[in-house]
């Protein structure tokens, strides 16, 4: 009897050893996500309080739940609430688009900016404004989505995706950088040729949340929601793709369909966000990396964290841009560039980038 019980006891110990780390990691992820949501809430209130005219927490709180004709009430409701809500919409879009691109391409250095997706959307919007004189958000959102989609497909084909083998991460990155440089040059040329049409879009070209109204955001919200839902649905399958296409297929994953849906998600997220806020750089690169350093290479969790961390970083960057040159401000796209560039240098100096 003793001999028969001993193996079962050893088996129980082995199972307990395997279960405890998994439970501890899951608990850490849940606590971390709750803490990130708390920090995001704090950043939202800071965004409402800090600006050319600083406001106290009491003033902001009262303005949220009461009506008034005061100047402070007007500032909060006509300026700071709209730009904060825009940040809460486009931040998750850029962060999640970067996470999806990195998972699909198995390239830890990929993001909508480096791979030229943002540049494709920005070029299409510039074409709509400069050539067709389209200035309404509900109209040129379609140009932004088309530009993001065409740029993504072109980069994949140029990088070698038209052949029998899938393109390597290096090939896709080089193709994306080349595509982004070319499209940025054409966009700049369009703005110089028709400077009057682009006079009101100077901040948009570097990425900005200033002077964005909720009426500009509503046409884009459906596209962002669909893009987020698609990304969350395909997230578990992307864990299998991280081991390679052949291994994923052997596990029952339809790799081609996942890539198609991933492409649609990237187009909706990057194209929609770029249409309203401009091509904000590095956000889609640094957020998934920061998340993976903390929770590990698990795509569903990476996607959930990206939805929270990206708007947090975007709001904090926007706040910094308002403070450093008060009463003026620096567009948020420039601030994210200053923050993201050192992170990119750190990644380059690391012997091994965060595993996917």
UniProtKB/TrEMBL annotation:
Its main location: membrane. Pfam families: FecCD. PANTHER family: FE(3+) DICITRATE TRANSPORT SYSTEM PERMEASE PROTEIN FECC-RELATED, FERRIC ENTEROBACTIN TRANSPORT SYSTEM PERMEASE PROTEIN. GO terms for cellular component: plasma membrane. It is a multi-pass membrane protein. It is found in: Cell membrane. Keywords: Cell membrane, Membrane, Transmembrane, Transmembrane helix, Transport. The chain crosses the membrane at residues 30-52, 81-101, 113-134, 140-162, 174-197, 217-241, 302-324, 330-348. Signal peptide: none annotated. GO terms for biological process: siderophore-iron import into cell. Belongs to the binding-protein-dependent transport system permease family. FecCD subfamily. This is Iron chelate uptake ABC transporter family permease subunit. GO terms for molecular function: transmembrane transporter activity. The keyword Ribosomal protein does not apply.
